[in-house]
Amino acid sequence: MAVQGFGNVATILVEHLLRAGASIVTTDIYESARERARQLDGVEVIDPGDFHRCDADIFAPCPLGGVLNENTIPELRAPIVCGVANNQLLDDDGDAQRLQDRGVLYAPDYIVNAGVSSTRFTSWMETTIATPQRLRRRRSSTRAGW
Fold first, then answer.
1. Do the Cβ atoms of 116 and 95 come closer than 8 Å?
2. What is the C-alpha to C-alpha distance for residues 123 and 125, in angstroms, rounded to an integer?
3. What is the mean pLDDT of residues 7-25?
4. Interatomic CA distance for residues 74 and 61, integer angstroms
5. SS3 for the chain, per residue?
């Protein structure tokens, strides 16, 4: 899996992927982020300039938008693009067509981020609202007729 960018969200993604046994290659435009990535076992860090060309099953853009464009799409080696960066396509219609023409499966950022939002909301609900004590109180009050 190729994870472009190594900010907060990408770091969490990489940690989950490593626990699942994935092989990770990553980069970032900032040396400090690349150095953080180098501290993780099982992560290969490469130069950011040609990152879109690395061999991977999945390319996950997690930095700024516009990384998929008329220059980078023809050079993609991954058959799947699924990342959390907003506005990954520089030209929505043209770049979407370029990905389709190349047979690249593309998960739009708003779909991927909806999953992230749902997961965060569920986690928040479980830790903030739906504690076992609160659920027990609610069940007993419902049984009492309120």
1. no
2. 5
3. 92
4. 16
5. CEEECCCHHHHHHHHHHHHCCCCEEEECCCHHHHHHHHCCCCEEECCCCCHHHCCCCEEEECCCCCCECCCCHHHCCCCEEECCCCCCECCHHHHHHHHHHHCCEEECHHHHHHHHHHHHHHHHHHHHHCCHHHHHHHHHHHHCCC
pTM of the complete model: 0.77
At the topology level, CATH places domain 2-107 in Rossmann fold (3.40.50)
Domain residue extents for the chain:
2-107
Q: What's phi and psi for 138, nearest 5 deg?
A: -65, -45
Give tens-digit pLDDT for 26-81: 999 999 999 999 999 999 999 998 898 899 999 999 987 899 999 999 999 999 99
Nearest one of 7, 14, 9, 12 to 32, comparing CA atoms: 7
